[in-house]
Amino acid sequence: MIHGIGIDLIEIDRIKTLLQRQGKLVERVLSENEQQKFNDLNLEKRKIEFLAGRFACKEAFSKALGTGLGKTIALNEIDCFNDELGKPCINYEGFSVHVSITHTEHYAMSQVILEV
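^ thats the sequence. predicted structure below, dont judge the formating
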């Protein structure tokens, strides 16, 4: 049974601007595992796309959960990882979580479906 569906769209340039202004943005948004993957990326453009995609994913997850961010879970407490085939995944107790993340030149978007 579906518990919730969330979707989020963000402008990549907005994340780029935030990253330039807020030095701790990466630590506020990404889990420790995601920070390692972020730091392993070579191209600055790819890092910003990765950060924007993960931000959109976490916003979509909070919408599907129905709680919003900050009330029960922080951005950096949500760990979005890739399985062995590259599919984005989130483990969250009590739910089967389905994640999709996509990028264009200007936008990152994510959809999350939570099943009980």
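The chain has four helices and five strands.
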